[in-house]
Write a structure and sequence with these properties.
Number of helices of chain A: 10
Structural class of chain B: mainly alpha
Strand order of the largest sheet of chain A: 6-7-8-3-9-10
Number of helices of chain B: 11
Radius of gyration of chain A: 17 Å
Strand content of chain A: 25-35%
Number of domains of chain A: 1
Order of helices and strands of chain A: EEEHEEHEHHHHEHEHEEHH
Helix content of chain B: over 70%
Structural class of chain A: alpha/beta
Oligomer: heterodimer
CATH topology of chain A: Rossmann fold
Radius of gyration of chain B: 19 Å
Chain lengths: ~240, ~290
């Protein structure tokens, strides 16, 4: 298995405040990796640093190529789709326009049309609402739309920031089921940040636990889920 | 009745120009959250360029097109050189930038072409339109060109990928970057287009107000007022606001006793304030709700 994403000694700063203190981890091609940790541990910052949305130092390599000092929009063109916290929906635009925007860097218009149909097959509710303003969708539907928008890039790596946030448990199950399917069938590698550790560990192959900007634990997702000590001290369940 | 129809049609004709200016103002406002005080001066300068080209013997429509290209490039250049570096600066810094731009363009035009009033030709003629006394061919031309422009812009923003990208960049910049849109260049493109739209307004109104460095002062005030009336967040509202301004200005001047030409502007602005008291976001604007 080849390493797709390799993060080495990552430090990130908000103004004078340092949020990440030398964080290292890697993600293999085709795998589903989760970053766990409490509020404020630095999970979101890690994703934002990968897409250069926050000032950072250290090494970030994607498929062997360094991502440092590239603009956010050019990092997307490597095939990295980022679903931000709060979903980043284009609320004043229609559902279909949101999907088209996901593919705005692609040139193959026929492929885009067929991918939109594919997304409607994955998420039938989006098809029902394709002419509706995206801001009128429910939270769960907007999260589906955000994932679909990210997939429209035909990404090699998808970064998901708290996809379960604010969703009903049943909707979360549904969404995680779809994420697993995308990972297996479309061979999209996924890095997901979650507070819902139990659910994320069921889905993931690999897990890293972050505390105050450092990795404190890493390993096979099943092992971590089965280790009562880790669960109690870091994951709170 | 004929007087009424006549005033409404003439109002629509000048309203078309206000609509263009309002649209230009709204486009830049949507992109950078600031009002471009120099929008009128940019339009005036472009109009002088077209006049100069015609003085050198270039035919009207050729100089029209060259001027649009010049205005577009000029708009992009102003954004790149002056306002891109100010993107994260406080509001007042930006306001100072706009005022400086206003003064620089105004004085340069005066220096190059002096402040005397110049005749500006119309390609439409000024005979009665279709034999009717209600409206002149130039007024009809003003309306026609504006309507064509609005239709073209509608299709551009609604049905082209670059139009979609520009809308995305203006509405949620961070998400736009995350799908790979270069938002910085989208803003520059918006400046270029706003500048070109303003140039069209300038070239259409110049035969009416005559060409001089201060020709756009009043027009821009009406354009601002139209944009605020329609709602600064709504391009459609800005256009409707422009036409309403034009019509109302004329009707107030004609029918309210003692108003006449001199008081048209204050009356029109008073109307806007009354509308805004009832609808602070403008007729078509949205309240921006921010999550805290």
């Amino acid at each position: 298995m080849t390493t797709l994403l390799n993060v080495k000694d990552l430090r990130a700063y908000y103004g004078q405040v340092q949020a990440l203190h030398g964080l290292s981890f890697s993600l293999n091609e085709g795998s589903l990796v989760t970053l766990l940790g409490a509020n404020g541990a630095g999970k979101t910052t890690t994703l934002r640093a990968i897409c250069n949305m926050v000032r950072s130092t250290g090494g970030i390599e994607f498929d062997g190529k360094p991502l440092n000092n590239r603009s956010t929009e050019s990092i997307v063109r490597f095939g990295i789709a980022h679903v931000p916290q709060g979903r980043g929906t284009f609320t004043t635009m229609t559902v279909e326009e949101n999907l088209q925007l996901g593919a705005i860097t692609r040139k193959d218009s026929a492929g885009i049309v067929s991918d939109i149909e594919r997304m409607y097959a994955h998420f039938p509710v989006l098809k029902q609402r394709h002419t509706q303003q995206a801001g009128t969708l429910s939270g769960g539907e907007q999260q589906m739309l955000a994932v679909a928008r990210a997939l429209m890039l035909r990404p090699r790596l998808m970064l998901l920031d708290e996809p379960s946030f604010g969703l009903a448990p049943l909707v979360v199950r549904d969404l995680f089921g779809i994420l697993g399917k995308i990972n297996r069938e479309d061979k999209v590698s996924i890095l997901v940040v979650e507070q819902n550790a139990q659910l994320a560990l069921e889905l993931a192959d690999q897990a890293y636990v972050i505390e105050t900007g450092r990795i404190v634990m890493s390993g096979n997702a099943k092992d971590i889920a089965n280790n009562e000590e880790i669960r109690k001290s870091y994951l709170g369940y | 009745m004929e007087l009424f129809t006549n005033q409404v049609l003439a109002g629509i004709a000048t309203g078309a120009i206000y609509a263009c200016m309002a649209l230009a103002v709204v486009m830049i406002y949507q992109a950078i959250d600031h009002l471009n005080f120099a929008q009128g001066e940019m339009a005036m300068f472009a109009t002088f360029i077209s006049w100069q080209l015609m003085q050198w013997g270039v035919p009207y429509w050729a100089s029209f097109v060259i001027t649009l290209a010049f205005a577009f490039v000029g708009g992009v250049a102003i954004e790149r050189i002056l306002f891109k570096p100010l993107a994260k600066a406080p509001v007042l810094t930006n306001v100072a930038g706009f005022i400086a731009l206003f003064a620089i363009i105004n004085s340069s035009a005066g220096l190059i072409w002096d402040f005397t009033i110049k005749q500006y030709p119309t390609p439409f003629g000024s005979s009665p339109f279709l034999g009717s006394q209600l409206i002149s061919t130039h007024q009809a031309g003003m309306i026609g060109v504006t309507v064509l422009l609005l239709i073209a812009l509608y299709f551009f923003f609604q049905y082209t990928r670059i139009g979609l990208a520009m809308r995305a960049a203006a509405s949620v910049p961070e998400s736009a970057r995350l799908v790979g849109i270069n938002t910085s260049w989208m803003i520059a493109l918006g400046w270029g287009m706003a500048s070109a739209i303003g140039a069209i307004a300038g070239m259409l109104i110049a035969p009416v107000v005559f060409l001089e460095p201060n020709m756009m002062g009043g027009v821009l005030i009406y354009g601002f007022a139209a944009a605020v009336l329609g709602g600064l967040t709504s391009p459609f509202g800005a256009v409707v606001g422009g036409f309403l301004m034009g019509i109302f200005e004329n009707l107030a001047g004609t029918y309210i006793p003692g108003v006449g030409n001199e008081l048209k502007l204050p009356i029109a602005l008073a109307l806007i304030i009354s509308v805004l008291v009832v609808k602070p976001a403008g007729l078509f604007g949205r309240h921006i709700v921010k999550r805290v």
